[in-house]
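Journal club prep — side note

Before the paper discussion, L.F. wants everyone to see what a predicted structure for a comparable chain looks like in token form. Sequence:
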Amino acid sequence: MAVLLVGSVGCPEPVERPPQKYRPGDDDRAGEEERREPGERGGGDALPGDGSPAFWVCNPLFYNTRDGCDCGCGIADPDCDGTGCAAPGCSAAGCAFCHLGAELDFDCADGPPPVGWSCSGYYYDDGLCDCGCTIADVDCAGGGCTGPDCQAEACAYCWGPVRQGACD
């Protein structure tokens, strides 16, 4: 796992990327190349995130790491080779990873989730009913719930301080 050390010497804090298109409890991920767990990004010869500029608002580990074009991070990612975009929530032809600033990652093809959605942006309108995300997921077709740790018959995944994944 790639870790960026921040803070004073002797007091490092790991910086990790939230899961993208991976759900806790998913055992069968074969053939799902787009699903990644934290730390599965980065590449090239330079240290990931080495020298991210001041106006970069996303995780420094995503800047100029030759691992795919990050869009919506305040300034252009050199990985985009001029085919990306910088404004939070944007999407362009070259975008591999889309961000709503530092707060939220989302599927570039689908666009950002509605304002107020509190779960991963990848989970909104992905074909599975996510519950406990403050805003109703369209995949629940009216049969889900929105409060933290709630559970309803339509819920495939339940989110909140206690529940973090597949509903029981």
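L.F.'s comment for the group: The chain is about 0% helix and 10% strand. Keep this in mind when we get to the figures.
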